[in-house]
Give the backbone structure.
Amino acid sequence: MRRALPLLLPVALIACSPATPPADSAATPAAAPADLPDAATADHAATLGAYHWRLVDARDGAGAPIDGLLAEGGAPLQLDFRDGGVSVSNACNRINASVTLDDDRLEIGPAVSTQMACLDERLAGLEREIGARLPGTHRLAITAGDTPRLSLQTDGGDMLQFEGAPTPATRYGSTGEQVFLEIAPERVACNHPLIPDHRCLQVRPVQYDDAGVRRPGDAEWTPLYQEIEGFEHEDGMRNVLRVQRFDVADPPADAPSQAYVLDMVIESENARP
């Protein structure tokens, strides 16, 4: 049955735990890729949307490593499926494409990306390979397990192998709530029940109207006793973040009952004198 992927789960941008890096392609002899197992006709959409898919191996039709996709020195290429499309992370630009799932066939439309200049030749090469190899029709297979595996094989014989890491929505068991938070340039001393001499982020909610214009008026700063997953605070930098807020089921004693996961940096300003 042919259908577009539904909106399943929100994607937390760059809120990723370290992934296993690709094996050293220079030490791996080229071999013809194995045939994919017969793909189940069951609906793969929920599984695709429940994980961040991180590239662990890529080989062309002759079995040779696709070095441009496996370039070392950075985070691996990552796919996230939602809202009838796929987004690609860990290149210079944010790349998106439409997706249609037809049983064991995954059709990825032409890639559309932001237009940031890419001065890193490794990342520029990665983007060229993405544009050349990702769009098109792929045979899809998903292997279940503690670390699920996604295999995509193009009609030209390229074989791309990904490992899945649960999205925050999968880990917390809900879609979460989208909120906007302004982060003060400096941390503040706070009384953390578990960490002596802790310094908390200072945050306040931000609201936007339907046109995307920030509503006037600023709330009071309040300390946030936990970190925001995927966000690294730099002293002197003021930021406005779009985050997903999740309820934590049965948190340990003195642990927060909510978790915050970075979705997007909306504003960033150097507030140093």
